[in-house]
Design brief:
Radius of gyration: 26 Å
Number of helices: 0
Helix content: under 10%
Strand content: 35-45%
Order of helices and strands: EEEEEEEEEE
Amino acid sequence: MDDANSHVDVPTSPVGEPAGGDVTVVNTGGDPVTVQNLAATVDSGETSIIEDTCTDVELPPGGTCRIRIRHIATEPGPYSGQLTATASDGSVLSVGISGRAVAEATPGDGETTATGTPSPSGTTDDPTESETADPSPTDGPEPGLTD
């Protein structure tokens, strides 16, 4: 049993956002094997197996299956780990996992956060958008509305 990918490089993603990768397993032996005891571990964040077409499936010689992992980082920086599986013939498959997480997106990175109360026109008075909040005489309720 062998892996077509000797390493899973998970794409860089923000903290809290999922990123993933795939491993294709190939039975390079001359006898059928069954994958058992599949596990993914990393030194930081949460990694899970979200697709597994290998476990408890007999792979004929030359047969393939796929494992898809998902990682959600809990802090910025690099992380690494292993995807391991034991086969019915006693062989162990081990594939390295690595990736990098970046800081979460914050307001100002193209996102806005409203902190004021909506006015009848649907706009907000957000003191973070200007240096001063100086209401003009036209501000206030629209004619016909009462407080």
